[in-house]
Design a protein that fits this description.
Largest sheet: 18 strands, mixed
CATH architecture of the largest domain: Roll
Structural class: alpha+beta
Number of domains: 2
Number of strands: 18
CATH topology of the largest domain: Diaminopimelate Epimerase, Chain A, domain 1
Distance between the termini: 5 Å
Shape: globular
CATH superfamily of the largest domain: Diaminopimelate Epimerase, Chain A, domain 1
Length: 274
């Protein structure tokens, strides 16, 4: 077992452990990632973020996101905001670009600890979400034990999401979330969001995150919810997505890119034993 230096950040309570491999090579097994994320064994987190050098030198860094179950995830909205802030802070920049599995993401500092990230263009193709077979992505019917048949809106924002425009308690989400995440319709599993539309500019959400479970906030879920609500005529192109610990501001811009803005925490130095 060795001790390594790492960092901890969060976006609205959605927390991350950051491991910087740009200087020292640190190879982590899936089990080590699970152990690091386990709150019973250490500092714990929702996701782990790995920083590597961008070999093509087109961005500030190559970023890989891992869920607490040890699986890699292509996109992480709050993680993208946190790591962009981290990279901007170390070089005293107000803009950055990160290279992720979902593509290059551009970010900028919009306040002291407020970061705006261009999360790219949503995808509605059933093969790209992905769904197990061709179906109406805007009306996916899921049979559940607690609500009967639910009608969900599915899309990808770098990872798969299903949105139900229905309020729910956290207790019930703990029960129903895993059922929907692992439903046969989703070959790569799915992030599950229940959204309560307050008015044309505000939505309150609760999220069961694929590979992480119940989370206090989820950036890509906020993006997916905003797009789905706009497509269904429930809101406009700009909307505030409210989580338990704060709010993300989402704009689905004219060029179809999703712009996500919100605050991040300060950077905390931690030690990990692996």
């Amino acid at each position: 077992m060795i001790e390594i230096q790492a960092y901890k950040m969060d976006g609205l309570g959605n927390d991350f452990i950051i491991i910087d491999r740009r200087k020292d090579k640190i190879d982590l097994s899936k089990q080590q990632i699970i152990n690091i994320a386990d709150r019973k064994k250490g500092p714990g987190c929702d996701q782990i973020i790995i920083i590597d050098k961008d070999k093509e030198k087109k961005t500030n860094a190559k970023i890989t996101f891992y869920n607490s179950d040890g699986g890699e995830t292509g996109a992480c909205g709050n993680g993208s905001r946190c790591i962009s802030y981290f990279l901007m802070s170390e070089k005293k920049l107000n803009k950055s670009k990160i290279n992720t599995e979902s593509g290059i993401l551009k970010a900028k500092l919009t306040g002291k600890t407020e970061v705006s990230v261009d999360m790219g263009i949503p995808n509605f193709d059933w093969k790209k979400i992905p769904l197990m077979k061709k179906m109406n992505h805007a009306n996916v019917k899921i049979k559940t034990k607690h609500f009967g048949i639910l009608h969900g809106y599915t899309l990808s924002v770098g990872n798969p999401h299903i949105i139900f425009f229905k309020d729910i308690t956290f207790e019930l989400l703990k029960k129903i979330g895993p059922q929907i995440e692992h439903h046969e319709f989703f070959p790569e599993r799915c992030n599950v969001t229940f959204a309560d539309v307050i008015n044309k500019k505000n939505i309150a959400v609760k999220v069961w995150e694929r590979g992480a479970g119940l989370t206090l906030a989820c950036g890509t879920a906020a993006c997916a919810t905003a797009v789905a609500a706009s497509k269904l005529g429930l809101t406009g192109k700009k909307v505030n997505i409210h989580f338990k610990n704060g709010t993300l501001h989402i704009e689905w811009a004219k060029d179809k890119h999703i712009i996500m803005t919100g605050s991040v925490s300060n950077i905390k130095n931690i030690s990990l034993k692996i």
